[in-house]
Amino acid sequence: MSDILKIAVQKSGRLYDGSMKLLKECGIGVSNGNNQLKVTATNFPVEIYFLRDDDIPEYVQDAVADIGIVGENVALEAGKEVNRIEQLGFGKCRLSLAVPKNGNLQQVQDLEGKKIATSYPNLLSSFLRSVSVNASIHEISGSVEIAPRIGLADAICDLVSSGSTLFTNELVELQTILQSEAILISNQQLSPGKLQILERLLFRIRAVKKAQNNKYVLLNAPNDKLDSICRLLPGIKSPTILPLAEAGWSSVHSVISESDFWNVIEQLKANGAEGILIIPIEKMIA
Ligand code: ATP
Ligand code: ZN
Question: Is 285 within the bounds of a domain?
Answer without folding.
Answer: no
